[in-house]
Fold these 3 entries.
Entry 1:
Amino acid sequence: MTGPVAVPPRVDVVSVSATQQSSESVRSHDDAASSVDVTAGADVATAADATTAADVSTHSAAVEGLPISSFATLRSCGADSDGRAPASLPADLDAPACLSALAGASSLTLGEFGESLDVDSGADLTLAQELGAGADEATAVRAWWSTVPTAQRTVLLSAVPSIIGNLEGVPYSQRNLANRITLSRTIDDLEQNPGGTVVGAPTQGQRLAMLQQVQQSLIPGYDGNDTARSLVSLDTVYPGRAAVAIGDLDTAKNVSLMVPGMMYTVSTQMVSFTNAAAAVQSSETFWSNTLATTTSAPESSAVVSWMGYRTPVMTNVLGLSLAEAGAVHLENAVEGLDAVRLEDEPRTTIIGHSYGSTTATIALSSGTIHVDDFVALGSPGSVVADAGDLAVTAGHVFAGAAALDPVAGSGVFGADPGSVVFGSKLLNLGSAVDPYTSQKLTAVVTHNEYFTTGSHAMRSLALIGIGRGDLADGRDPVPDGPQLVNGPSLEYVRPQDVSRESVHSA
């Protein structure tokens, strides 16, 4: 078990007269700023978090320049006349006006609004999405945040952390602080108030266990990788959503987002999937250092364990509704990254596993985002028939299909990304000896082995993530040649290919 994260207390909301409110508001700013200690406990603390916490605590003086405003200030965010957050957002929400109001509201106003947000219904995440979802919106948020005074940012982190933590366009270091505050507060609330249960509904115990998994996933050190981890998105409503970055998303030259598939949930796979992301990040760092020359310095990498959508289970896996919903969230995440890194664009790679690969093809064929590389692992199908229909740099679509993976090549949701017809590079997943390091690479055989440390697949994923997919071993597409589904070499033949027509017309 990990210890709770030390967080600032909630902004104190009291009833004061108009004359009291002026002095009380300034004092609340001072209290919130001076009491912020967002450094995690000893078992989850990282150097990055400690540095950011120190930066926040630097601005602990009284904030006389900040406005003193009434509850009506947040009417543009849907607040009622008493300053309470709405049960549902107004259809005509004015995002720029709401952002302006958040930047100018007093701590009392923000405290009342934050306390009244119905987080159990996801109202906080809905507001964050309304404000920051979309390329233009995320870019506007980036510009807005740069103008918010440091002390007011501190107040926002304390009063409405679940909004700031999920607001695309806000720097990831700040989102990490905000989400850790939300995580710690929610865990504390659940531990102190177990509550009752409703027939058919998840128990508070299930929700608590889910969030403790998120907390545990923030602990660095897996397989010797002590790189700092950041909580860059968080949905505390069961079954939950979360994204943990290994590496610095604000500065990394190479960013990879790993999208999980069927039955991957925050409650059961958050820790293991995040550790897999850490293994990919370690491998990327190794290869960046290995391939560095006197004229080409090593590049930094960040890999995101992106459990940002609800994945299907056995009873609903044959539908695309969850993939379509997940694709929207994935598009928003990439657009947010593009906005934050507007002046320093990283190389971006999406790695989709199983149902997550189908989700990624929906996002990459939506016309909203573009990435440098895409890898489909154990894919049940792409919603487009050709790699050229995906918004990915030409020649940078890859597929991995293990020999005994029953999902890969099944074509449940469309074209098989591993077929020659599709136009991707089919990765070699067999055992081999690395030509650069002379190390033995283990084979990937089944559906859940693609992220195995020391495997042929892990080597390829790392090389692709740092922009050296040309060194990944595999079969290149031959667009002008005969379209052989099972290929001419037994090295790349999969059992699922044997029963197919061997030759198709181009």
Entry 2:
Amino acid sequence: MKASNLATAGTLKGLVTTTEDNISVGLEGAQVSVIVADTINTTTFSDIDGHFVIMGLQEGSYDLLVALEGYTSERKEGIAIVASNNTTQDVVLSLEE
């Protein structure tokens, strides 16, 4: 990311988890997609502990789609990204039945 973009771009970070025996467990390898106007803007994957970070998002409103095989996908809508700030959006996935 260019240094000039740091003042106009924001960061979205969070944690992808599931609940096992009433304990929150991080999920590795979940696909985390940022969506604008029904089009995927960028995608990343959660790390070994379930964390993800997406940098360089222009200020505005985004949707987040999180998917992992064996789990029900989760969509969060209207996430506000503010320039030069971090926005946190955690996601809990449920096992598919």
Entry 3:
Amino acid sequence: MKKVLLASVMAGLGFGMAGVTTASAAETYEQYQTAIDARQGSGVSGTAIFVPQDDGTMEVRLTAENADGLKASIHRGLCRYSNDSEGAPEMLAFSPEPLAQLDDIEDGKSTCSINMTADGMMTEPHSVAIYDGDAVVACGNIQ
């Protein structure tokens, strides 16, 4: 009897697994959060929250300390290569040209919509960088 019951359970599990599908990133998560860490002792840090929208855009809600008047943008690549991408694997190299420019940070916040889908953001390395002039003073990898 135990063997028949075990075989029935195993068969049921097999049928259950046949119906499993993989969902896209947009269907899986309601939002993504990225910590933005200070670089070179800048004292600038924060958080970026990315919320996929039904129209295929992404709402970005950035909060940052010590960052009023600074600029933020989304880049291809990882923060560790933001100062120098020489020798970095091509897929991980930080691109100095932003994919999306965020609104200037005012009262510690920046909220805007960018033309990027959740799938596009998550299929290759991206980062959010905060700038003081040309210098990256805080950065966070989007994962």
